[in-house]
UniProtKB/TrEMBL annotation:
Protein name: Uncharacterized protein
Keywords per UniProt: Membrane, Transmembrane, Transmembrane helix
Transmembrane domains' residue ranges: 300-319, 325-350, 395-418, 424-444
Protein species of origin: Candidatus Uhrbacteria bacterium RIFCSPHIGHO2_02_FULL_53_13
Length: 524
């Protein structure tokens, strides 16, 4: 473990490694202002984790430019991508070495032959999307390598590999266990999305892909479809989600270690050898994580409440008020007010009442770190067991019947209160139940986000158990609605396919005009 700590400390000290010498890529201040403004608008209508924003932007640029004709005599594809990222302020201006252009161009050229292998059939779009995921991740890793993140993942992998006992029924060979553990750690610790996972697993199968020989490239091209299927099977393995939840429970231990190293890179080894200093440093790091989580929680819930309130107001004006006036002949103000106000307030109650058992949790994190540093093998001993499916057999039938009964009771009671007590009509009842299901699902999802900071096991009380028993059907319906709702965000579609291409073309023209004027000035 000390070896991994020393490696991580060294990588933190090295920083992002931008070279100080040589030519730098420079764009105009005007284009950066315009480009970054567009990205802020786009990111506001599609929430994503902050560390994924740049990679998502790279993927959008690649997807858009694959359908465009470009004059590479004026500007290479790599230069165009890097300039767009600098416009959007995903990369610093006058800092990125110009030699990165050749590196990105080499990657794009490497993937051209793979895109040519995509068959023109019903799987065409899926394979293109898959290759764009892998390509965009490799481009980002080439621009700025996540060495410290990979070192942290390696540290956790070595630790967890030594502490996991695979239970009876997990009939996997050691290499498959290692691979699934690696994927779960990337999801839990580095919060890697599907695109990143695809690239990381692809690199495990083709380790020399960064600089492939002609033989390697030919082999990948010939078995591309089979390789994609194998990687997807690994990422979506039946054990994947269960392993992810197991790794998530210990992610805070390694985040805390990383935070201490980043805060004191020069003194890291001394701190980890001194129990008193280690306890104080870990406590400070974990407390800061709690604060950051709380701020993020308030921001997410606040945005959701505003969006929900505006949506409910709009639906009231478009549907409920006309229905009351023209179908029923009178405006029912109480159901209307409840339908507008209840769901935002309910979401706030669910989302903002999250509690972290800070004392016990921090103490356990500190204990895990101390034992890991001292190589005490009993620190995080855990057994991975394949969960028994309770939906099978006679007992499963009984449980399914009981679940169906709770579904009827949960929705039946709410519908009865709405119609018999509060005088809701059919439309207002349907809208209330629809949003009640969605809000409950999203509220529970928000509450569950605290699990990434919990090392201690939470014990549910009798009231919580009863609440879960009757609310689970509502949550399941909310989840079903969210999965069945249209996958296309109309705002994102409008920005990506109507606005972005001409907007970025306009910025390119501004850049070209500025460069032309500068050149003419130099001739004077």
């Amino acid at each position: 473990m000390n070896k991994h700590i020393a490696t991580l400390a060294r990588l933190v000290q090295e920083g992002n490694g931008w070279e100080q010498d040589g030519e730098k890529i420079t764009v105009s201040k005007t284009s950066r202002t315009a480009g970054s403004a567009y990205e802020r608008v786009r990111n506001a209508v599609e929430y994503e984790e902050e560390h994924l924003l740049r990679r998502n932007a790279i993927r959008r640029i690649l997807g858009r430019r694959r359908t465009m004709d470009s004059d590479e005599a004026i500007q290479s594809r790599g230069e165009a991508i890097l300039r767009e990222l600098i416009w959007a302020k995903y990369l610093p201006n006058k800092i990125v070495p110009a030699k990165k252009i050749k590196a990105v161009d080499a990657i794009l050229n490497k993937y051209d032959s793979l895109f040519e292998r995509v068959p023109d059939n019903k799987e065409h779009q899926e394979m293109e999307d898959w290759l764009l995921d892998v390509l965009s991740t490799e481009v980002e890793y080439t621009i700025e390598s996540p060495k410290s993140g990979e070192a942290l993942a390696t540290m956790m992998f070595e630790a967890m590999r030594a502490h996991i006992t695979w239970g009876v029924g997990t009939d996997l060979d050691e290499s498959k266990k290692d691979l699934l553990t690696y994927i779960a750690i990337h999801r839990a610790l580095l919060k890697s999305n599907l695109a990143t996972l695809r690239f990381r697993v692809f690199m495990l199968y083709v380790p020399d892909w960064h600089r492939p020989s002609a033989k390697t490239k030919r082999a990948v091209e010939e078995r591309l479809m089979g390789l994609i299927q194998t990687i997807e099977n690994d990422i979506r393995h039946p054990y994947a989600d269960q392993l992810y939840r197991l790794m998530r429970r210990y992610a805070l231990v390694f985040w805390a270690m990383e935070d201490v190293i980043k805060e004191h890179p020069d003194e890291a080894m001394e701190i980890f050898r001194d129990d008193d200093r280690l306890k104080r440093s870990i406590g400070t790091a974990v407390s800061e994580r709690y604060k950051v989580f709380r701020k993020k929680l308030y921001r997410i819930v606040g945005r959701a409440i505003i969006f929900l309130f505006l949506t409910k107001m709009l639906l009231a004006l478009i549907l409920e008020v006309p229905y009351d006036l023209y179908v029923l002949g009178a405006l029912e103000t109480v159901p209307l007010a409840i339908n507008v106000v209840f769901h935002p307030v309910f979401l706030a109650l669910i989302g903002l009442t999250v509690r972290i058992p800070a004392g016990r949790n921090t103490a356990l994190v500190t204990d895990h770190v101390r034992k890991l540093v001292n190589d005490e093998s009993a620190s995080m001993e855990t057994i991975f067991k394949v969960k028994k499916p309770w939906t099978q057999g006679t007992l499963g039938a009984v449980f399914s019947s009981l679940y169906g009964l709770t579904f009827i009771v949960s929705y039946g009671v709410v519908a009865w209160v709405l119609t018999a007590v509060l005088n809701f009509n059919v439309l207002s009842t349907a809208l209330f139940l629809f949003f009640f299901s969605l809000v409950t699902f999203f509220g529970i999802k928000i509450r569950q986000s605290v699990r990434e900071l919990l090392v201690v096991e939470r014990q549910g009380g009798i009231i919580g158990t009863i609440f879960d028993f009757f609310m689970l059907p509502v949550v399941r319906v909310g989840r079903w609605i969210s999965l069945q709702s249209p996958k296309v965000n109309i705002f994102i579609f409008f920005l990506d396919f109507i606005v972005e291409a001409p907007f970025k073309l306009a910025i390119e023209m501004i850049e070209g005009w500025v460069a032309f004027i500068r050149e003419k000035k130099e001739e004077l």
